[in-house]
Amino acid sequence: MALTRTATKLTHEAAIALIRAAADHATAMGQPQCVAVVDEGCNLLSFIRMDGARILSIESARRKAETAASTGRATGGMGPELEIKLAIATEGRMTNLKGGVPIIIDGAVVGGIGVGSGTGDQDREVAEAAIKAVFA
After folding, report:
1. Which domain holds residue 97?
2. For FRET with 16, which of 9, 23, 87, 127 sits at 20 to 30 Å CA-CA?
3. Residue 2: inside a domain, yes or no?
């Protein structure tokens, strides 16, 4: 019986690269964003609030990253019958707002990126662009 296992971990260098790639994409689209990167345990690794991004999007970006990392799925696709229940059950830590994307390496979820301050589609676009730029 194995008592330990080896796991791929997201590094702070990767988190910083994701933040830079997201900020570059957000700048190119003209939409300042809040961007959070968490590891597989939902621990914050890196964060930026771009000039002009909404203050309240600080928290939603982090929650989007945490939700994506903990579920292994992009946020925004949950049925409406579940979203309020899960938000209440997790004291607001889970969200169904678009803009959270899991970071998956070799089939394993190693973290999540959450973006907020634009429309849900803009947020998701920035998150996906950052992952593609860093891990493609």
Report:
1. 12-135
2. 87
3. no
Cα–Cα dist 99/37, whole Å: 12
Q: Which residues contact 50 (CB under 8 A, 6 or more apart)?
A: 23, 26, 27, 32, 33, 34, 35, 117
Angle, CA 96 vertex, CA 9 and CA 28 arms, to 5°: 70
pLDDT bucket at 108, cuts 50 / 70 / 90: very high
Q: Write down the pTM of the prediction.
A: 0.95
% of residues, the chain, pLDDT over 90: 90
CATH number at residue 76: 3.30.450.150
* Domain annotation covers residue 1: no
Place of tokens 């992009």: 74
